[in-house]
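Go through this chain for my students:
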Amino acid sequence: MDPISPAPTALVELRDVNFGYGERAVLSGVSFAVPRGKVTAVMGASGGGKTTVLRLIGGQQRAQAGSVLFDGQDVGRLDESGLYAARRRMGMLFQFGALFTDLSVFDNVAFPLREHTDLPEALIRDIVLMKLDAVGLRGARALMPAQISGGMARRVALARAIAADPDLVMYDEPFAGLDPISMNTAARLIRQLNDALGITSIVVSHDVAETFAIADQVVLLAEGKVAASGTPADLRASSHPLVRQFIGLTADGPVEFHYPGPSVEEDFGAEAVR
């Protein structure tokens, strides 16, 4: 009898991944691993490829070079049935929640269970109420998305993301547009649910304080590459100019304010800049 190979310690791994849109390179030689049972934050300036990383893991895009592994399988090489099977083990919290506006809170959370399982409606009811209770919104089950606040909508979306007990939950800017109280609540829920359910989480975010408070490791992307990675404490202690600029929230640094383009003289003429 062949020995059973141990499960890899990383649930997700990017190996020397390249990806771009047309001539614009977004990721160039990106490599990092997402440990099982941990919260990994993917951070960086806007346009740095953070959401693209989530799309590659979910199979919405395929790497042009390198490998994107989910539980040891190369997502880019999966056929349609294999990709759908992998996606059933993933949950996704989209930016701003992306709830179905014509469905109630209850039906939004029930949607993945009804679509991807043959569970009886009575069991779906119990699961939905348990997930809503986990995010503090069991009493809001009958409300429509238009009747709840932005922070509540994000919590409903989180309940939907964990409805089918996924192995991996991906969060795309979960704190965007939230007030400080809702932001803190959302961050606390991500950490608590990750630990209570034994899942693995990837959080894409710009919010340094909230993200550093819940992350086990941080991957900082810049100019299509991994500029730095480590624990939040590692990055706080880093002397790397880009890390200092990102954590210090300063305009001046390796990430320039102006998008590359013609000089002022070329656009307006030499006389205009005198």
Summary: Strands lie at 10-21, 24-35, 39-44, 65-70, 73-74, 90-93, 168-172, 200-204, 217-222, 225-230. The CA atoms of residues 127 and 163 lie 7 Å apart. The first helix runs from residue 50 to 58.
